[in-house]
Amino acid sequence: MSKTLIIGAGGVGHVVANKCASVPDVFTDLLLASRTKSKCDAIAKDVKARQGVDIGTARIDADQVPELVRLMQDFKPDLVIHVALPYQDLTIMDACLEAGVHYLDTANYEPVDEAKFEYSWQWAYRDRFEEAGLMALLGSGFDPGVTGVFTAHAQKHHFDEMRYLDIVDCNAGDHSAAFATNFNPEINIREITQKGRYWEDGRWHEVEPLSAHKPISYPGIGPRESYLLYHEELESLAKNFPSLRRARFWMTFSEEYIRHLDVLQRVGMTRIDPVRYEGVDIVPLQFLKAVLPAPASLAENYTGQTSIGCQIKGVKDGRDKTLYVYNNCDHAKTYEEVGAQAVSYTTGVPAMIGAKLMLTGAWKKPGVYNVEEFDPDPFMADLNRHGLPWHEEVDVPLPHEYD
Ligand code: NDP
Fold it and tell me: How far apart are CA 383 and CA 49, in angstroms?
């Protein structure tokens, strides 16, 4: 018997609600709450049709701690799965502490007025969660999330010492919109327009946004131009696996996407500071989000697949070894299964798995943790069981240069 509160009714919330409802022996009672209740109701209807399960819905402004606490005291959940926006991480963690509820999210905190994402704000909650006997699991999506579990799996089963990590993320899907983002446009564009950052020889190195790129070949897809980005899991992986001499993150973008982004940046549409327009303050990026397609709306007729994995070089039994562990996910198949595109699916399934492991006690420790700090085996087994099968290749040549 467990009660789970899901916050956020976007593309990811849609998948989380469906996947939790598909495991009724663990998730016995579900409540979906978000800013717009009609979106929760539409998801609840979809869950009923697909899974035959009734879930409750509620309206919540997750920026307001007292409102969150009231909802939690009323519903009395064991766990909150937070898949609204990273801006709400801290308010929801505060409310969880006040109401005595475990916490899980898929993206680290970002202040609204500064495009800066790092774990320090959430790691600062460690003592308070520990003292309250509560657990917070950070970044249980795909990247961050599965990429951390893949790295922990590599350390546990393949290497004595991991030295080089390249996370490679390809979306080779076609949704036929001229320009759209696969998850929340505001968060996505803030991430991509930042300077690229990677970890090497004990310190962070920076490059200009999207300036470092090369073709990387993805399984079942072929070569795609891939851009070095800063991605939040690099921070926790560099800390939790100190043998890594270098850790980088690469993501594919089409020429069309880069061209649109370039123009939007040049004309000021990606700015996050307010601009006065006819007596009202408007944040250009928030306005842009309002006119771009919602991520969930891309799902119908989306074709092609995603491929995300970890390419690792290190040492085992005194000799060099490489490992490539990855998952490919097909947009059309995820649409058929839960009515969502693969980027929402690859985030929502690991959120459900992390929650399942917490609720069943397989992963349970008071404090604030990243996914790679737990035994990867049950998570890896659940990926195969719940729609994200993984593959691994040992000692294949990897497309990177090493010292
Ligand atoms: P969407 O924009 O589709 O959905 C976000 C949802 O959050 C919307 O329903 C929105 O409500 C709701 N929301 C926003 N602000 C509030 C608030 N103050 N109170 C209550 N609800 C609010 O985004 P996605 O579903 O694509 O992404 C969800 C999260 O998943 C994001 O944090 C994103 O960063 C993360 N993510 C993580 C990935 C990973 O692999 N780790 C990959 C992809 C996404 P409304 O409908 O009213 O706007």
Answer: 24
